[in-house]
Structures are given as structure tokens and as C-alpha cells.
């Protein structure tokens, strides 16, 4: 199964000033598209041509770095577009809120720690809310890496590569992360992913 670039699940200008049309055009049409086209070239002859993106990510980790980088970023961005929605953000719905209370010390602590993970990821990478051994954990990874290769399943992730925020926020990564949680997160998609692994 070769990689394909999905359309955004909303209009390019749907996220307003929190994530501009210009950012989404560059990020989706140029950056994500490059991971798809480069990933497809690198898949040729690996024997992984018919594997799912998750399988390619796991199989290439530590073995084929160029393929891993592109497959990882394809997986990350497939979900990232769905982790955003117009008028999103705020407190999570019931089951997710309860689990955040149990495992992460409540929403306010989660918010603080998730933002700290994103700010603390030196250089490019991602911050995550993942499920590991049945518990919610906050993680951060460099470059195209993700929790799949660290024994966890991501249910929320935020891209902290500069291509995700520099047009709208310049160097203010903390402001971008705050806006992500307060105004952009699609908690219904988080709930859906969590439901699939229970
Ligand atoms: Fe990105």
C-alpha cells in the first residue's frame, strides 16, 4: 500500500488565525506531500510495499533511517490534520478527562506538562499524549519519531517543527502550544483513537 496524501478535513482557512491558510498550504501541500512522495520512492524494493503505514514505521525504525523519517512523518501528519478542528480545544470529554485525572493529575497538570514537553523538545519533533500499558503518558520525540516505536499508542500529538508554527507565531512555540490546546484540539478524534485501543 503506497502512501497517499489525504485532503485536509476542513478548509484551508477554517482554523483562522490560530493556524493560518498560508501555514496549512505550506505544511500540508509541501511538507506532508514531500514525505508521501519521498516515502513512496524509498518504499520501492524494500518488501514493505504492501504494509500499512504503521507496519512500515515499526519495521524501518533503527534499520532504514531515510524510510523511517518519511513514513514516520506521514503517519504523524495523517493524524495531525485530524487532531485539529475549527473551534476546538478546551477541556476533553468524559472518558478522556477521567483518565487524565487518574493518570496525569488532572487537566491543568496535563496542560502544563504537555506544553512543557513541546517546549522542551530541542529542535524539531513532536509532543504526545499516548497510552502505554493501559495508562496515559506524555511523551516527546525528535524529528519523525513517534510513540509507536516506544511501545505506546499515540492518541494526541502536536507538531513542533518550525514549519508548523513559524509563519503564525514566529519563535513563540509556547504560544502555539497554548493555542493548540485552548483553540484547536479535536477531542472527538482523540476519543475515537482511544476507543480503538481499549
Ligand atoms: Fe509537520
From TrEMBL:
Residues 2-84 form the Manganese/iron superoxide dismutase N-terminal domain. Its cofactor is Fe(3+). InterPro entries: Mn/Fe_SOD, Mn/Fe_SOD_BS, Mn/Fe_SOD_C, Mn/Fe_SOD_N, Mn/Fe_SOD_N_sf, SOD_C_sf. GO terms for molecular function: superoxide dismutase activity; transition metal ion binding. Its EC number is 1.15.1.1. Residues 93-192 form the Manganese/iron superoxide dismutase C-terminal domain. The keyword Metal-binding applies. Mn(2+) binds at residues 27, 77, 159, 163. Pfam families: Sod_Fe_C, Sod_Fe_N. Transmembrane segments: none annotated. It catalyses: 2 superoxide + 2 H(+) = H2O2 + O2. Destroys radicals which are normally produced within the cells and which are toxic to biological systems. Belongs to the iron/manganese superoxide dismutase family. This is Superoxide dismutase.
